[in-house]
Specification:
Blueprint lengths: L2 H14 L8 H12 L3 E6 L8 E5 L4 E6 L4 H16 L23 H8 L6 H24 L7 H10 L7
Parallel strand pairs: 1-3
Antiparallel strand pairs: 2-3
Length: about 170
């Protein structure tokens, strides 16, 4: 997928999910989970270094995003957005790998087959990794600009409509 298409998809998704500045990655995950019909569970875990910073495990009842617990909040947000990028770009696991023990501890209820499928993600090619990283970068770029340039949205829906009609263009367009 080209960068222009990724930008269009990100913009559309953020607008549809009513994600406004300041960006809250947990709110984004909650709303995206509702849209996908299953929750996205964020799992901070001290992943071994060197190794992956994050991992997405898709099950029939939930999507799990494991991310490095021992890093900064901004890096954690980037890791989570990268994993969301795989979802948004419609990536599907493929390839073979053995389940890693680190995934069994934090979520012992996960089906071993789900863990196995998730670890196949390590076989994504460079194009898939580029797409996921581009999605994370696009969202973070927009958030860094919008978080500091757009006035806070009013809590009241009617007041937000008035702000939208009378104010400068706001949001992800």
């Amino acid at each position: 997928m080209k960068e222009r298409e990724l930008r269009r998809r990100c913009r559309k998704l953020l607008k549809e999910l009513d994600i406004g500045p300041p960006l809250d990655v947990e709110v984004l995950c909650a709303r995206l989970g509702e849209r996908r019909g299953k929750p996205i569970r964020l799992m901070a875990y001290p992943l071994e270094v060197p190794g992956p910073f994050g991992c997405w495990i898709a099950t029939s009842s939930a999507d799990y995003i494991f991310y490095q617990a021992e890093t900064t909040k901004s890096h954690q947000d980037h890791i989570i957005l990268h994993e969301l990028g795989h979802m948004l770009a419609d990536h599907h696991p493929h390839g073979d790998a053995e389940p890693a023990d680190f995934l069994r501890g934090p979520a012992p209820g996960l089906d071993p087959d789900a863990v196995h499928r998730a670890l196949r993600r390590s076989s994504y090619d460079d194009a898939h990794e580029w797409e996921a990283e581009t999605v994370a970068t696009i969202i973070l770029e927009w958030a860094s600009v919008l978080n500091y340039t757009i006035p806070r949205r009013a809590a009241d829906r009617d007041l937000r409509r008035i702000q939208g009609a009378l104010g400068d263009h706001q949001g992800w367009l």
